[in-house]
Amino acid sequence: xxKATTADAYRLVHNGILALARAEREGIRIDVxxxxxxxxxxxxxxxxxxxxLEETKLYKRWRHIYGKRMSIGSNQQxxxxxxxxxxxxxxxxxxKGEPSTDEDALSRxxxxxxxxxxxxxxxxxxxxxxxxxFIRESTDGYIHPFYNLHxxxxxxxxxxxxxxxxxxxxxxxxxxICRRAIIPRTGHALIEADFxxxxxxxxxxxxxxxxxxxxxxxxxxxxxxDMAKQIFMxxxxxxxxxxxxVMRQAAKNGFVFPQFYxxxxxxxxxxxxxxxxxxxxxxxADDMGLELPDGTHIGAHMRQQGIKSFDDFLAHMKRVEDxxxxxxxxVYNEWKQKWVAQYRKQGYLQMHTGFxxxxxxxxxxxxxxxxxxxxxxxxxxxxxxxxxxxxxxQWKSKIIGQIHDSILIxxxxxxxxxxxxxxxxxxxxxxxNAWKWIIVPLEIETEVYGVDKPWVQVS
DNA sequence: GGAACTCGCCAC
DNA sequence: AAACGTGGCGAGTTCC
Length: 459
Description:
globular, DNA-binding, about 10% strand, two-stranded antiparallel sheet, alpha+beta, about 450 residues, 4-stranded antiparallel beta sheet
C-alpha cells in the first residue's frame, strides 16, 4: 500500500485552499427579505413566550430575587433558582462541576415554565445565530463563508463568518426555517453531493477488519440492524416495521457510532434506554417502554429475556461491548491497540494522506484523528477536482460550499448530468488511482433540490 | 470597554 | 485506568 508523504499533504492543502477560496468568492445566495420577515415573526413568537413565562411562579420568584439584574438568558441565575432556591436535586453537572441547565437536565424537571425556557432557547438560537448571521454577513444577497484548513487538529476544515457547517438539519422545524434562507441563483438548483458512510469506509482502510469489510461490501447486510437484534435480544428484525426501525436507530446512534468514537457501554446503556423509553433505575415492568407490533411492550420482552432492570441491562451491554470488540470487530480492535502503541513509541501519527499529528493525545484521539482527517481529505480531493473540471469546461454551475463529507453546488439544469458524471468519475477513477490505500468502494450520492427552490428537504 | 472564559447547542 | 472525536457562535460572566 502506497501512502502519501507530507509533501503530498502540503499539495492537497495548497490546492484545497485555492479551490475553497474560489467557492468563497462565488458565495451562497441568501433570501435576505425572507430572513428579515422571519426574524420579525420569530421576535413576535419570542415576545409571546416571554409573556407566558412571566405568568409563572418560577419567573415571579426569579424576578423577586434578582430584580433589575434578572435575565431570562442567564443559566447561572436559572441554576441558582432551580438548585438553590427551589432545592431541586440536579440531574447532571457541567464539565466544571456546576449543576447543568441544558435541555436534557431541564426536561427531567417538573417545573412550570421550563417548557417556555426551552422553546425560547430554540427560537432565539434560530433567530440570533442563523437568520441574523445570514443578514449580517450578506452583501448584495450573498454570504461568503470562510473555509479554513489551518484550525483543526485532525486537518479537517472549519467554517466561519458565518459557519456554514452547522445549519440545522435534524430538527425539522429549525431546518425549514433556516434552510429556507439558502437559495440558488435564478434558474439554478442546489445540488448536494454526499459521500455515504465516509468515515466508516475510511476506518476500514486503516484496520482492514474482515467482518467490517463484509458489511461494507454486502449491500444486503445491515450492521445497525444486527446490533439492534443483539442489544434488544430479538432473533430477527425487519427495519420496515416501525418499532424495529426505532430500535435500529437506537443501536446506530446509541451504540455503534458512539463506540466507534470511543464511548463505553455505561453511557450507551443510558442512551439506549432513553431511545426505547425504559427507565434508568428500578425494576422494569411489562407495560414499560416502546410498544411492539403485537401490542406488548419492550419491557415485557426484555424481562422474558432475563433483563429485569436497568442494572441487568447495564451488565448485558457490557457483554455486548465485549463481543463487539472481542469477536465481531476483533481486527479493528487489534489495529487500535497497535496504532496507539506505535504513536506512543514514535511520538506522532501519520495519516495515509500524509498529514502528521504530534503532541500529547489521549487514546480516543489517537485512533479517531486519522479516520476523521483522511475522510475529509477524500472530500477535499473531490472538491479540488470538481473545481478543476468546472473551470476547464467553463460551467455555468458554481461550487459554493462544503460540509466535511458533502459538496454544495449551485447548478444550472443543463449541467445536472455532467456534474453527476464528473463526480462519479472523480470518486470512482481519480480518487482510487491517486490513493492506492483506499481499499473500499466509495460512493457519492447527489440530491437535487428544485429549480429556484431553497435548500429544504421535503421528506 | 474589551479579552477570555463557561455553557449550551448547532453540524459532521 | 478510563470512559464520545472535530469545530463555530451567541449570551452571560469574570477579569483586567
